[in-house]
Amino acid sequence: MKTIIISFANSSREPLASITEEDDHIHRILIENNRGNYSVHRESFATVDNINNALGTYSGNIAIFHYAGHASQTSLLFNDQEANGIGIAYQLKPSIAAGNLRLVILNGCSTAQQVTKLLDLGVPAVIATNASVNDTSAKIFGVEFFRNVCQKRMSLRNAFNAALASAQTAAKEALGLDDAVNRDLHVPGEKPREPFWGLFYKNADAVDMNPLPSAPETATALYEPNIQLTQTIFTALVNDGNAPAIQLDEKKKMEIIEDYVFQKTIMDVFPHPIAIQLKTLFAAEYGAEALKKPSIKRLEQIARVFQITTEFMGIIMISQLWELKITQRVKELPDEIEQLLESYFNLNIDERAIYNYSTLIKGIRKYIDTLDKVDYFVTELETLREEDEQNKKFGEACEYLAYIRNATYPGKPVGIQEAEVGDLCLTAESMLSVFFEKLGFLHRYTLTSIQNIRINKYRHDVLTEFDHQVVKLMNSNASHEVNYYLLAKHLDNSGVILTKQNLSVFNVERRQYKGEALEFLNLSPLVIDINAFESRADRSNLVFYGQYREADKVYVFRNVSKPDDDMNHVEINIDRKFGRTEQQEQSRYEAVCKQLNAFRDFAMHATTLQP
C-alpha cells in the first residue's frame, strides 16, 4: 500500500507548540479522511535514524513526504542533527521510479535551494520556501494544505493557493498571493522575491490533480451511484419515525423492493426544492443517463443537491430572524448580523449560487442563542452545532461539498481533471450521505403555498372561519392538488410557509382540513410560488430569491428545479403595468413587491418595522 510519511523536527524535551499542533492536526486529518487508499507513517520527533529507517522501509511506495521544522538551503534539522537534503532526495528515488511519489513538502525556512535536485531526480512537485517563515504561519499553511487535499479533495495547485491565503492571515510579509498562475516551467529562482512558499514543478499536469493515492480500482469499479445515498436517507427517515418509510421498511422484510421504490418514498416526504434535486440525481428524469454513472454531470448534481438544501436551511434561519424583528422580539440587530444580511442581499446570481450558507446559518444561530426564551422554529437545527463532536463528520461533509460546488458550478473554470471524476463521485456521494444522515427530520415540516384566503361567515354565525386555499409542496412534482385549511385564526398573508403540525381532516371529498390555528414560519418573499399570482395557473412554480438589480428595479428569482439555468430565472419588475383584465395578478404582484421592498430595507438595516 502507498504510504504518506509525515515528519516533524521537534524536541522531545521542550516540544515547540506550533510543531506539535501541526503534527496532531495533519495526522488527524489524514487518518479521518482515509478511505483505505494509503497508510500513514508518523514521526513526531524525527531523527536521522528513524527517517532513514522509514525511507528504507517504505522504499518504492512513498506517495507524499512531508517535513516540518528548522531547515536551511542544504539541510533539514532532525532533533538538533542536520540531515543532508540530497541524501533524502536519493532515498526517494525508488518511489519516483515506481511512479508512486507525487509530492515532497519541505515546510521549513529557506528550503527552495533543495528543490532543484528533487525535480532533477523526477519528483513531480515540491512545496518549499524562499526565505524564513513565521512559525505560526507555517503551522497554518501545513494544516490547511492537508485539509484542502484530504477533506476537500482539491487539486495540488488549488490546495496550495488556498493554504497560502490562510497562512497570510498570520504573516505580516506578503506571501505572494497575487502572483500570476501559469502552466510554465516553475523552478526556484536564484534571487527569491519575497518570503513566501513556492509550488515547484516541471510539468503542470502534476499539480492539476489531487496528490493523494487514488482509491483502489476495485472500489471505483464497484461503485454503484445512488445506492449508499438511498440507503442512508431512507434509514434516517425510518429512525426519525416517518410513517411511509417505516411501512416500507417492514414490507422489505417479506419481499424484494426495487431501489426506485425507496427513492420515491424519499422524494414524497421531503420539501419540494430538495426533492426535485434528489429526483434529478436519482436519474428519475427521462434522458438522464449521464447521471447514472460517474461523470462530471453527476458530480455537478451532487453539489447542486447540497447547495439547494443548505440554501433552504439558510432561508429558514433568515426568515425566523426577520420574524423576530417584525414582531419586535428584538429591537436592534448586532453589527455582525446586519453585515451578514447586507452581504446576503447584495449577492448576484452567480455569487449566490456558490454562497456558503453554513457560515450564514452559524452566524444567525450564534445570535439567536444569546436571546432569552427564543426557540428555533426548526428545533433540530439546534442539534447541528459545529462544536459538538458528534457533528464533526457533518461539518467536514459540508466543507467538502461546498468545495465541489465551487469547482463544478457551470460557468466557472473546472478545477477537476477527468481522471479524478470517478474517485470524486464516490467520495462526494459518501459525503452527501453523511450530510443527509442528520437531516431525516425534514419530513416533519410541510412546505405549503398559501394561494388565497377567504372569510367564511354568515349573518347567523357567531364565529368567523378563514378558508385558506393551499398547495402542499412536499414531493418532487410541482403539485396541482388544491387543499383547504379551515382555521379560526387566519395566516398573515398569501405566500410560502413552513408548518410543523398536522390538521385534522374535516371533509375528504372537498379536501378540507380544520383546526384552530396553524404554527408556521413565513418564508416569503425569499421563497415564492410564482403561479400563485396567476389566476389561470393550475400548479406551483417555486422560486428562490436570486438578486436585486438596482438599475432597472427588478427582483430576479431562480427556479428551484433548475436553479443554475438562466432560461428559468423569473424577473419581477416593481413598476410592472397590468391590463384591466389582470387585476387579480396586479394585486398579488404588488403584495410580493411590497414584501421584497420591506425585506430589502430590513437587510440593508434602513427601516423600522411595525408589529
Give structural attributes.
6-stranded mixed β-sheet; 19 strands; 19 helices; alpha/beta; single chain; 611 residues; disordered C terminus; 7-stranded mixed β-sheet
Number of helices in the DSSP assignment: 19
User: What's the mean pLDDT score?
Assistant: 82
Estimate what percentage of residues fall within beta strands. Answer: 15-25%
- Structural class per helix/strand content? alpha/beta
- Cα gyration radius (Å): 28 Å
Describe this structure in words.
This protein is of the alpha/beta class. It has helices spanning 17-32, 48-57, 85-91, 93-97, 115-121, 135-150, 156-168, 217-222, 227-239, 243-251, 259-269, 272-281, 296-326, 335-345, 349-353, 357-368, 392-408, 421-437, 583-603; strands at residues 3-8, 39-43, 62-68, 75-78, 81-84, 103-107, 125-129, 197-201, 446-456, 465-472, 482-487, 495-499, 504-507, 512-515, 520-522, 527-529, 542-549, 554-559, 569-573. The strands form four sheets. Strands 13-14-11-10-9-12-15 form a seven-stranded mixed sheet. A six-stranded mixed sheet has the order 2-1-3-6-7-8, sandwiched between helices. It has a four-stranded antiparallel sheet with strand order 16-17-18-19, covered by helices on one side. The N and C termini lie far apart (66 Å).
